[in-house]
Specification:
With 136 residues, the protein is of the alpha+beta class. Helix content is 35%, strand content 25%. Helix 3 runs antiparallel to helix 4. The chain has a 7-stranded antiparallel β-sheet with strand order 1-2-3-6-7-9-8, with helices on one face. The chain has a single domain, classed as Aspartate Aminotransferase, domain 1 (Alpha-Beta Complex), CATH 3.90.1150.200. It is globular and about 40 Å long. The longest helix is centred in the N-terminal third of the chain and has 18 residues.
């Protein structure tokens, strides 16, 4: 079984975010950092070289594969800001209708900039996602 490459580490979240060259993306990243901190009441940690994660949980699939992952997090990618929403988006269809301009993957929400979305709706989406992730 392949080992997960994205692991919790001691790298500095602030140094990582300050290294973002695009001023707008850097400012948005610090806003998301603040928002996720408020929602999770957890300190941010680096996961791998480019993901800021909050909280931690252990998962185990029926296949036997298991590991540790963050409850929610984000990564300021070159193309967009990627927010990791555990549990997918099916439970959040009503919120997504009000969110604004975004795209989704299985567990990822892609936004170009915070100005494209309703920040209050985004915060509520994160709250619901974190709450669901913490349930057994």
């Amino acid at each position: 079984m392949a080992e997960l490459k994205t692991k919790l580490n001691d790298a500095s979240v602030i140094d990582f975010l300050n290294g973002i060259k695009d001023k707008g993306k850097r400012a948005d990243s610090f806003e998301i950092l603040k928002m996720m901190g408020q929602v999770t009441k957890q300190e941010p940690k680096m996961w791998g070289s480019s993901i800021v994660g909050f909280g931690e949980y252990h998962y185990k699939y029926k296949s036997g594969r298991e590991g540790d992952w963050f409850v929610t997090g984000f990564s300021p990618r070159k193309q967009n800001l990627t927010l990791y929403v555990m549990g997918g988006f099916t439970p959040h269809t009503d919120l997504l209708k009000k969110l604004g301009k975004y795209k989704t993957g299985v567990g990822c929400l892609y936004i170009n900039k915070l100005a494209d979305v309703d920040v209050k709706v985004l915060k509520e989406l994160l709250k619901q996602s974190v709450k669901a992730a913490k349930q057994p």
